[in-house]
Specification:
The protein is globular, with a radius of gyration of 23 Å. The protein has a two-stranded antiparallel sheet. The chain has a two-stranded antiparallel sheet with strand order 2-4. The chain starts with 9 loop residues before the first helix and ends with a helix. The protein has two domains: 294 residues, no CATH class; 200 residues, no CATH class. 57% of the residues are buried. With 552 residues, it is mostly helical.
Length: 552
Amino acid sequence: MAKSQLAYGVSLAAIAVMMLGATAQAQNVAAAQAGGGFQRGGGGHHHNGGGNGGHSGANPGAVDPGIRGGAPGAGQPLPGISSDQMNFFTVAQGTFNDVDTPATGLGPGFNLDSCGGCHAFPAAGGSSPPTNNPQIAVATAMGATNVVPSFVTANGPIREARFVLNPDGTPDGGVHDLFSIAGRSDAQGCDLAQPDFATQLANHNVIFRIPPPTYGDGLIESLSDATLQADFDAQAQQKASLGVSGGFNTSGNTGNKTRFGWKAQNISMLMFAGEAYNAEQGVTNELFPNERNNPDASCQLNALPEDATPLTDAAPSASQSADFNSDIVQFAMFMRLLAAPTPAIPLNIPSGGTASASASTTAASTSTATTTDPAATTTDPTAAATTPASTPVAMASVLPTAAGSSTTSTAAAAASSAASSATSINAGLQAFINVGCAACHTVTHTTGNSALGTGATNVTVNSFSDYAIHNMGSGLADRVTQGNANGFMFRSAPLWGVGQRAFFLHDGRTSDLVQAIEQHASSGSEANQVIGQFNMLSTTDQQNILNFLRNL
């Protein structure tokens, strides 16, 4: 494939400074207008190629092609599983999609009444559906008296809300359930009040999270801590050249690397399942056996924990093993046995998932430019990772090797004809790697010897994440600390399956990949230099990256 022949000198370094400064300034202005970035609403999403959202840094010709069509490419079990595993998977999938009621543990506070309701798109185990948000209907189901908060909209993302601070000013950070079972005809007597979200929004005290997809998570659980560390260390030189640092969130008890959730706060799928069952649906279980929200006796309708290990097989199914396991074990095993999402068009993954040797020789200039972000500081004294104010960027070794033609095509032509082109998609993969995105979104890992069997043992995992936490700057900061991840830090989101994601970033603030990319850059973000380099690419190179991502 052709390589862009670009020469960069001092003048381009100056342009880079202006681009990064403008990006950071735009992000800070947007954050201020939206209440410091902590109460962005659920409306105003631009689905399926809504342009670049007005970001001055990105080439205006590059367009998000939108959610890809065709088969989901996700939601199937791991290949090669046994018949017993397949039976367990099928039964557990049904439990995952079951709708809870107060009699089976729903509430007293909750965000939705089913795991499968949140993790729905493009198949069970995924994320928010693009339309018909189920939180709207559940708010008043069975006569419930809830008011739908302003940040939950019919065609917006499913959201949970966290309060940043307690009334006394101490850190909160916990989930505050959107709805109460009060008023439901099947929960008579419960009078738990719905939180006052309007006041908390006015006080800029609310941040949001959306459900992450769970496809391939069994493979991620099968990656050893040593493998994650070795893969992270293998990119140390590239990370340093791009101003990227970061590190792993860990268990406070064992020191093991945690890797699930927006801040990599959960260590296993079982912990992820147990915590979500309690926090999102209000169902007590053997990991979280007590009711949340300190309800009075009128709201404590069942013996605790509501989800417990069954000692009799009251409803025999195709899997006796599943029958004798609690819901949270079934949830965890369903997610563990979910296969990784597959790209629509197969990818030509470079060896090691790094820039190709041939590409690195195409630079027209071998000079090194310096990019400076004068705003790259943080106001959080506890921030563990910040972008240096001035960091050298090897322009000639990164940008000129971004795959693709340097000619500019129209947005319509790029979106309509190139999106399905294997040439464009694989050129986009190479550009993604060479521009520096893969410094955090690590292309390839390899699992070890997994108890899940051959489908998860010694398997190459192309998830596009290092599973580390990184300082993402003021624009994405949520002021919530979880483990080693402070209020500026998030896990590098795995990008496999992103072609069928409807909402992006931790709070679902955009449906446009261009906006999602641009919002990686703000004051203090480790991604500033990478985004600056993305913005310097030609329209074709940028479009190839977008086409590659929407192919995943």
